[in-house]
Structure formats: C-alpha cells, structure tokens
Hints:
Structural class of chain A: alpha+beta
Mean pLDDT of chain B: 91
Number of helices of chain A: 8
Oligomer: heterodimer
Number of strands of chain B: 3
Strand order of the largest sheet of chain B: 1-2-3
Structural class of chain B: alpha+beta
Low-confidence stretches of chain A: none
Radius of gyration of chain A: 19 Å
Number of domains of chain A: 2
Distance between the termini of chain A: 30 Å
Number of helices of chain B: 2
Strand order of the largest sheet of chain A: 5-1-6
Helix content of chain A: 40-55%
Number of domains of chain B: 1
Largest sheet of chain A: 3 strands, antiparallel
Shape of chain A: globular
Radius of gyration of chain B: 17 Å
Strand content of chain A: 15-25%
Distance between the termini of chain B: 14 Å
Order of helices and strands of chain B: HEEEH
Amino acid sequence: MTARSRVVRAPGVELDGGDVVDRVRGLRLPANATARAVLAAADGRTIAELVPELGAHGAIAFCTQLNRHLLVNVRGLAALRLPVRTTPLRAIVPASLALAVVALPAALLLHAWALAPALGGGVLLHELAHTAALGLAPRAGVRRGLRPSLLHARLGPGRALAVGVAGPLAPALAAFAFVHVAAVAAVVLASHALALTVASPDGRNACGLS
Amino acid sequence: MRTVVIAFVLGTLAVGVVASIGGLALGIAAQAGGWSSFRAGIGPLVLVSYERTAAASATSFGAGLPLLALAGGVLNAIGAGVLSRRGG
C-alpha cells in the first residue's frame, strides 16, 4: 500500500451520524472524527488525499487498520495482498480460478492434471455451499489473496452449525462421485472435510466456539 | 456439552470421509498400477485391503477405518473442550 493507493468504502458500510454502520455484520460502532472523515470521503480518492493531516505514514497506517476491519477496500496492486470486501461471487469465482491456474504447472508436472480443477472447483463448491446455507441473510464476500470467505452477522447455534458444515461437506461428498473418474481429484475434494474439525474456522463456527 | 458432542460427530465425519476416499483412491491406484495384494493398517487393525487374483481385484475396508474415524471424533471433541475452556 502506498499513499497513492485508492480507497473506497466497503459495500454495506455506511455512516449514520457519529456511528459507522455495517449492514452485513449488523454492527453499529462509534467512530472518531478521522475515521468518519475517511469513510465519508472514501470514493476512490488516494490515501494522501483522504487524510493529509496524518502524513503519508500515518495515513497509510490508518487506512490499513480500516481495511483490516473490512470497512474500506484499497484498490491497486496493494489490494492483491489486502482483504477485498465485495459481493460473494466476485470474491469466490476469481479466487477459485486463480487457485486452479496457480496449481496447473505443478499438476502437469506430476502428471495429475485433475489436481488443478479439483483445487479451484473444491474452493468454489465450498464457498457456494456456505452462501446457499446462509439463505437470504445479508452477506459479503471477502478475498484475502487467493483465500475467499464470507462475512455475515453472528448466527444462532443451529444456523451456525448448518452454515459451518455445508461448506466443507459439499466438496467432500462430491468426492464420492469423482473417485472412480479421477482419484487424485477426489482426495483433494475430500480433504475439505478436515475443515469440519476445530482446527479450522468452519469447524469452530459449527461447534459454537467463535 | 453440546459443543463437545457436535465436535465429536464432526470429527468422526471428517476423518471417516477422508479415510474412505483415501482408501478408495488407493484401491483404484493399485488396480491401475497392477499392484499385488496388500493390507494397510495400524498394527493389527486393517484400514484397507486390496486383493488381486488372476480373475479380479477387490478393495475392502477393515474394522480399523471406523475406529480411526471414532478416534478422530474423540480428538476433535478434546480439542473443542480445550478451546471452550480457554474461551471462558
């Protein structure tokens, strides 16, 4: 991120008086004057233009914090390494395709080309199943590098279990359909089941541990 | 208690699915590669066995597979218990 990186307010984030309202997470948080000023003006202006009074380093640090809290998106080359908050499909599909492309050379080298589509397709199926399980609840897609995830409000125990389990289970069950066609791809898809354990955020969410 | 029970079920499911697919994939690889008969397991517990005869080949799961899945469930439940206590 540089002082010339462009900043836009994340979808679903609004200002209401002195508060920042996140419609997706169902949160209303008090904001200081600088945060209010940045969020009000974050329409694609550069970081340097948004908060000149903080200086380049201070402005970058401040916008980095807002980005970490998924309140603003930072455009440009920097955005590839920073979280991007957008609609679910715009977060999931590019990340899945990129994963497949990145894995393709190694898959071809190992004479197991099915590895690449299995990696990308598995992630696609995983996140689409989470999205479907969320139903019509407000949600946003988040992409951190090649890792997509879904942002939503805190769910009740039953709903959290359903949403947490749906993602890992969808590609894992699909593995049974593929095992006779492409055994390597099936193993990759089945490995998503490990996300049901408490070692993964999905498993912790399903168990009500987060 | 609810957390630990769910963690046990999900851990069992996770390890069960991965081990089943892994076993099936191993059998398919053995068939394609023309491997001779083998048994894969932990000590006396057989997870997967592959039998090859002149006429046919067969992959079968042993008693070790459900036990492995249950062990995964127990480990996950222990993990959930620890995380639950740490969380307050």
